Amino acid sequence: MSDFITVLRETCPTPVLDATKWKRIGGDPHTVNLNAYVSKDGSKIMGTWICTPGKFEVNYEKWEYCHFLDGYCIITPEGEQPVHLKAGDVFVIEPGMKGTWEVVETVRKYFVFA
Question: Where is the (S)-ureidoglycine aminohydrolase cupin domain (predicted)?
């Protein structure tokens, strides 16, 4: 196998429940992380995230790529207008984004943190 290419075809990630470090500020949201890849130094993570309805206070320290597979949420950066996201949307969140993340309908997304 290559030192430069990781094929994830055979991965069977172990579900990690309620591992988010974000502060819950509304409802009773619960999360499942299925981390399919973590770099050797732990700085890059890729996988699937599932979250039930509720609201979090967020503070992004890393860049995140997201592809929503299911659900609907509203992300509101401090001092800015809310961004409504739904199944099929692909987006990036830059480091330094602070605000709220509200899951309105259970979300399932692919993510990459780097």
Answer: 39-111
